[in-house]
Amino acid sequence: MRQKFHIDFIKNSKIYFCVSIAIMLICLIVNIFILPTRIDIQFTGGTIVKYSYSGNLEEKKVSDAAQKATKETISFTFAENLASSDSNSHLVSLEFTNSKAISVDEQDEVTEALTKAFPKNNFKVEESSSVDASKGANFFFKCLAAVILAAVIIIGYVGIRFKKIGGLSAGVMAVVALVHDLIIVYFTFAVFNMSLDDNFIAVILMILGYSVNDTIVIYDRIRENRRKMGPKATTADVTNASINQCLTRTICTSITTLAAIGSVLVVALIYNIDSIISFALPMMIGLVSGCYSSICIAVPLWVRWKNYSDKKKSENDKNNKSDKKKASKQKDKKSAEKKTEKKSEKKSVKAEKTTDTETAEEKNDSDNKTGE
Hints:
Elements: H1 13-33, H2 41-44, E1 46-54, H3 59-68, E2 74-80, E3 89-96, H4 104-117, E4 124-131, H5 133-161, H6 167-191, H7 198-229, H8 235-271, H9 274-371
Antiparallel strand pairs: 1-3, 1-4, 2-3
């Protein structure tokens, strides 16, 4: 594959890491001190009642009239009624954020209050839904389990598919990059003051697939280039070449996808369709984050881990060799000591035999003298 770019991603990896950490820290500060996280009733429990009405009304007057009819805390969302043929038809969604579902009588009181306050605007209940708090929590944990299961499957797949380049570590770093993307998506909902609802889960699952696809493409190119460039090429050289070769493809794919989702977002902004805005905007930011994390987070992290593990392996090999040499020297030393001991034993035996012979000769001489 022709290489159009010559960017040293591995050398600049610290800059990329610092940029990501800085963005997340800024978003965290905004989330804690300025815009706290809003959780939709789908997770916390509560009731949503959606009304349609005709004509133009001040949003504050509608919210004040509805709030006076109940003691519960209500949040309001206004939008165009695209399902109606009347171009002057609007929708207002009332979210009762209490963890318990409100009764039918309370809903009727709110409806009656709106009808009395605005008799000419034809307020009608379009939709009403309630979620129990326990069911909402159960739904949230099921979504969380789905994300965790997806991460485990990704690690297993990458570990098997790219075993020749250290697949398990590659899979773990791919998941680290995905966690980076999920954090960015979460902060997008928080900073733009959007409630965490089923759109949040949908965006997360889509970003998981999109981001890991980019990462796998780069890993596949690394595996091919490792075979082509041979063992003499360093991991950093192989990786830089692979990322630069895939860069054009990644950028073009991202721009095409962003253009498609961006057109949907523009339409949603024109008609004030909050449900689509809360999906399209985080999706676009998540796509950018996924493209960035695949190139600048996952693969550089894998290279650093690979270099660290190779260094550790080399040190262990050296230690093993030195240990073997020490053991061999000790063995030779012990062998030499044994040989020395055997030689000394032989000398002592010879000395004893010589002494015995001399003693016997002296005895014989003594006996001869006595006989004479």
